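Quick one: structure tokens for this chain, please?
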Amino acid sequence: MDKEDLKKFADDPKYIPGIYNYCDRWCERCSFTSRCMNFAIADEQFADKETRDITNKLFWEKLAETFQMTLDLLKEAAEEEGIDLDSIDIEGDEQFEINDDEKGVAHLISHMSNVYANIVDDWFNSNQYYLENKEHEQNINSTLKLIKPKPTEESVPLGDTLEVIRWYQYQIHVKLLRAIKGKKMEDSVTFNDFPRDSDGSAKVALIGIDRSISAWGEMIKHFQDQEDKIMNTIAHLSSLRERTEIEFPEARAFVRPGFDEINSNG
């Protein structure tokens, strides 16, 4: 590709300027590849990007349906056990010390997001054999069409659910670190009405947390015998979500080019 080709891409009005600055880099699951210049330059193998974008949009909408239901389930379980979710202990807290230069919610969420990544690894490692059998069983049932769930019982396929959890496992931590470091630098600058890059990074992290909560909610459908352990993971994510919103109160309102302007789940 030469400079003239690159200029043609940049001048094409179908591409949304800067849409790639606040995405999760998951092009295979993105519903805006047909509007992204970075994707167009890097990958020309998908002839019908618009069709794939529509399919991905429907996937995220389907997963998002589980989100509020999962939080409601968490709240009900906590009330039944008499647990105050706001005062829940952070897993791995005994190893967490804050020095004088690192006090505050910012470093708490950094710690919690790192702990979450370890929680995911522990769960997958301890359930590796079970997961392989479960996916194999689901693939066979799907191929033979032996199981046809009712519409109200339809769930996201296990393989897709696992993929979502793994994709955001480390990215949440990375995006939060970027947001924290960015905010530290931005605090010394007057922004007036200009959006902060740190809020954009925090928003991407929050979206990853939301989607992870939805995915773990789907996991309960597949692993009902591990509901308690999965609910503990969801509680950890829910607490991380709330603390992130406290540290970055404007993050949810941050308008990402393309994704939020078009009112999509992105």
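Confidence is low (pLDDT under 50) at residues 93-102, 140-153.
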